[in-house]
Amino acid sequence: MSAGAAAAAVAAQQAKLREEEEELTKYSEKDLSGWEFKIVRSVTKINNERFRQLCEEESKNGWELMEKFDDNRVRFKRLIENRERDATADIDPYRTHFGISEGKFAFVIIGAVFVFIMIVTLIILYYS
Description:
This protein is of the alpha+beta class. The chain has 4 helices and 3 strands; from the N terminus they run ααβαββα.
């Protein structure tokens, strides 16, 4: 698969996930009035202790758990009046990412592959 085809596949998957997020839960005007919403994403699984930690951290800024789409996406809501406390927040109240960033994650994967290749090369050279 070429790099262009891989990029197109990733873009299509991301579009599908965004569409799911928009259509999974329908809101009436009454549901939306006075509330703000956000989705927190992670490149690694948000489950068990990490899920509890995320919910606890978000609650400090007034965010309430609405739904967990999967192990990588969680939707929160909060009353708009909670914005008044944002200036004193320890954690960015509008963060939409939890855990290691995509760039760092890619760097770790590439680094691990590089180390693996180097070890295999050294083993081959040693036994040749």
